[in-house]
Design goal:
It is a single chain. By secondary structure, the protein is an alpha+beta fold. The chain folds into two domains: about 5-255 and about 415-450, 2-methylcitrate dehydratase PrpD, CATH 1.10.4100.10; about 275-365 and about 375-390, 60s Ribosomal Protein L30, Chain: A (2-Layer Sandwich). About 50% of the residues lie in helices and about 10% in strands. It has 18 helices and eight strands. The chain has helices spanning about 5-15, 20-45, 50-55, 75-90, 105-110, 120-140, 155-170, 175-185, 200-220, 235-240, 275-290, 315-320, 325-335, 345, 350-355, 405-415, 420-435, 440-450; strands at about 65, 70-75, 95, 265, 295-305, 360-365, 375-380, 385-390. Strands 6-5-7-8 form a four-stranded mixed β-sheet, with helices on one face. A two-stranded antiparallel sheet has the order 1-2. The longest helix is centred in the N-terminal third of the chain and has 24 residues, at about 20-45. The radius of gyration is 22 Å and the shape is globular.
């Protein structure tokens, strides 16, 4: 891997907006709209973004970049921190393969620079595509496709590097300066899986995108780091991937781009992605159940993902990371939406009773890789009737049925309307639909609408 950071930086800088295909632009537009929509909803539906926003606002930093949903401006780094956290708090943004949160760790850095530069829509989308591209190749090179083998939460490991690349494109960093930005970002990496299911998890994405942006801004000013920080001893690879890392694969960076192939899975439920398999199975069986109080036992077989084995999630937020809660809520309600993960639903009497009936069988015979995994669900009724199903992939995933543009817009509108009126929501959708043709003034308008305080 000699000179890997140098070669990678040169390749990244060589990619321009002229290299971004129409297919990549179409995907990036959808990602941008999805990210802004779930960020708006995150500021309304969950408490943690409000706490973080108040913490940042009280610091009275230079007001230049808009904070989504809270009606104030702060520094670009602080804005990216809050917006990335709000974008991830619902766990509603698209999923990637190998598993990662590549939108909430890149898009907020791009949006934070809209009001401090004259970037246009085409270059902003190019920056987003490039940031996502680096994250995808880092995750692919690690061979950590199965979530069961992860020791750290991926966005905190990959986010600072990719965000530095996204920001670096807008800031016009040359290859040598980008090497230093990446070096700075390497020292900003890490996030503990122990905090999955807590308020802290959203900040893994918020801090990832903020620290990458900070690294790019520092490098632009001449701040230096080890220019070979990816491959050097005690550098990025040595710290996180000692067992296996195929560094040469990072040099695959470029067309057709990972936003196109293998692309991403749209999330139609606001929870940890593996639970979408359980939710889909539960919704499939719901019409057959009749009276859920007549359920005797629920037998659920799934891959070994111990961090989402939560038989009694401590609150609604933790329910987003519970096999048992995903199965129970979908069987009871026949749907899962943002209200599913409120404390009122979590502690309802029927939920408490149903959770106790779930028998979980996690097995290493089922791969955890989202491209290959599946779950099996059996519901046994008091009269002995058995209902069974298997889910190989939720809709919107690589192995599930497609989600149409119209269906995705239903999700987008439901998220935007939590905090914005109809006219404001539709204006954001209209601007996002032609994002690559927008001028800087249009981008600023979009951010001003998204930043409007809670209604």
């Amino acid at each position: 891997m000699k000179n890997l950071t140098k070669k990678l930086a040169e390749k990244i800088v060589s990619i321009t907006s002229e290299d971004i295909s129409s297919a990549a632009i179409e995907k990036a537009r959808q990602l941008l709209l999805d990210g802004i929509a779930v960020a708006v909803a995150g500021t309304i539906q969950e408490e943690p973004p409000s706490i973080l926003a108040a913490h940042i606002q009280e610091q009275e930093a230079k007001p230049v970049s808009s904070v989504i949903g809270f009606g104030f401006k702060t520094t670009p780094v602080n804005a990216a921190y809050v917006n990335g956290s709000s974008m991830h708090v619902l766990d509603y943004e698209p999923m990637w393969s190998p598993a990662n949160h590549a939108l909430s760790t890149n898009l907020p850095a791009v949006l934070a620079l809209v009001e401090t530069t004259e970037v246009n829509g085409k270059e902003a989308l190019t920056a987003l595509v490039k940031g996502i591209e680096l994250q995808g190749w880092i995750r692919h090179a690690s061979r950590e496709n199965d979530p069961a083998v992860l020791r750290l939460h991926p966005p905190g490991v990959t986010g600072p590097l990719s965000s530095a690349v996204a920001a670096g494109h807008i800031l016009g960093l040359d290859a040598n300066t980008l090497r230093h930005a990446i070096g700075i970002a390497v020292s900003r990496t890490g996030s503990a899986l122990a905090n999955v299911g807590t308020m802290v998890k959203m900040t893994h994405c918020g801090m990832g995108t903020a620290m990458g942006l900070d690294a790019a801004l520092l490098a632009q000013r001449g701040f230096t780091a080890n220019p070979d920080a990816i491959e050097t001893p005690r550098g990025f690879v040595d710290i996180f991937f000692k067992k296996e890392f195929h560094g040469e694969e990072l040099l695959n960076f470029g067309p057709p781009f990972r936003v196109v192939e293998p692309s991403y899975a749209l999330k139609m439920f606001p929870s940890q992605y593996a639970t979408h398999y359980a939710i889909t199975a539960g919704i499939t069986l719901h019409p057959q159940i009749g009276d859920p109080s007549k359920i005797k036992e629920i037998n659920f077989t799934c891959p070994d993902m111990a961090y989402i084995d939560r038989p009694e999630p401590v609150n609604g937020l933790a329910g987003k990371f519970s096999w048992q809660y995903a199965v129970s809520s979908s069987l009871l309600d026949g749907k899962v939406d943002m209200a599913t993960f409120e404390d009122e639903r979590r502690f309802a009497a029927d939920m408490e009773a149903t959770l106790k009936k779930v028998n979980l069988n996690m097995t290493d015979t089922i791969k955890g890789d989202f491209l290959a995994t599946y779950v099996e669900l059996e519901v046994v009724m008091e009269d002995g009737t058995r209902h069974q199903t298997r889910c190989d992939g939720p809709r919107g995933s690589w192995n599930g049925g497609p989600v149409s543009l119209e269906e995705h817009l239903i999700k987008v509108r439901s998220c935007l309307r939590t905090g914005l009126n109809e006219a404001e929501s539709e204006r954001i959708i209209e601007l996002a639909s032609r994002f690559e043709s927008l001028q800087n003034k249009d981008l600023r308008e979009l951010m001003s609408i998204a930043a409007m305080p809670k209604s």
